[in-house]
Description:
By secondary structure, the protein is mainly alpha-helical. It has a single domain, classed as Tetratricopeptide repeat domain (Serine Threonine Protein Phosphatase 5, Tetratricopeptide repeat, Alpha Horseshoe), CATH 1.25.40. The radius of gyration is 18 Å and the shape is elongated. The N and C termini lie far apart (about 60 Å).
Amino acid sequence: xxxxxxxxxxxxxxxxxxxxxxxxxxxxxxxxxxxxxxxxxxxxxxxxxxxxxxxxxxxxxxxxxxxxxxxxxxxxxxxxxxxxxxxxxxxxxxxxxxxxxxxxxxxxxxxxxxxxxxxxxxxxxxxxxxxxxxxxxxxxxxxxxxxxxxxxxxxxxxxxxxxxxxxxxxxxxxxxxxxxxxx
Length: 183
């Protein structure tokens, strides 16, 4: 039974990573009462978290299990718990830009934008072309710090360094709207 749960979690995580590999790290906050698509079973987050807790206890040096637990808490809008588990993952495997960027996103949603920027700047210090960190830094600057010019500069740098950015048109439009708002 445990093997089946572990295999299912691994497949789910692998699929989620593949499907979301080109998505910006800052996702919209989950709705308070999300509507499930027709014919979709509800997600048993509590059961998945409990199964991951068991895996963490059995393999305390596996950084993937705390990260997966953090992702579940993030999706539930429990950013403080998500941040705790992202940090646990980083204690095992430091300098993981995906996990650090997600941790920064949690701090942004918790209203700790200075901490979020500190983490994003750290990611960009060792991985200067990490797209999600650049995109999220722009979000934190614009939405959290109200530094529109700073956010625009970060996003323009992102577009300059990544001309094939998957959401280029949307980001260019957002930049133009922001520039028009500060004229």
